[in-house]
Amino acid sequence: MNTVRPQAVKPIDVAVGILMKANGDVLLGQRPEGKPYAGYWEFPGGKVESGEDILDALKREFMEELGVTILSAEPWCGVEHVYPHAHVRLHFYISRNWQGEPQSLEGQAFAWQGQVDVQPLLPATIPLIEDLNALRYALGV
């Protein structure tokens, strides 16, 4: 008897941005109704389109979701996470240089956070908070 193994699902690449103010505050957005994990807080971003550079995807998503122009961003870390609805590969960038004030263009709530205290956090985000705080502390923020 031959056993057919399911083909491994290729992860979906997602560009994720952490806007960081000079005082170390970071922007989190709340997932709107109608999306998986609605009501959970996350760093803004979205899917990378076929053939699109990750940084270009980040810039596009921030303009579409928040009306913000990313002027520069540095890669920070990458995380793979398997949710019930999707296997994602998250590419995190930190931007300290952007233009415009965030606006809720997709009906999402957002909040600037020093010590992150919004709940619930998207599961893939939780382990990064401690590392992010260590980074902010290392910068003297």
Automatic annotation (TrEMBL):
8-oxo-dGTP binds at residues 31, 42-45. The keyword Cell wall biogenesis/degradation does not apply. The keyword Hydrolase applies. One of its GO terms (molecular function) is 8-oxo-dGDP phosphatase activity. Keywords: DNA damage, DNA repair, DNA replication, Hydrolase, Magnesium, Metal-binding, Mutator protein. It comes from Undibacterium nitidum. Belongs to the Nudix hydrolase family. GO terms for biological process: DNA repair; DNA replication. Gene3D superfamilies: Nucleoside Triphosphate Pyrophosphohydrolase (3.90.79.10). NCBIfam families: mutt. This is 8-oxo-dGTP diphosphatase. The lineage of its organism: Bacteria, Pseudomonadati, Pseudomonadota, Betaproteobacteria, Burkholderiales. Residues 11-135 form the Nudix hydrolase domain.
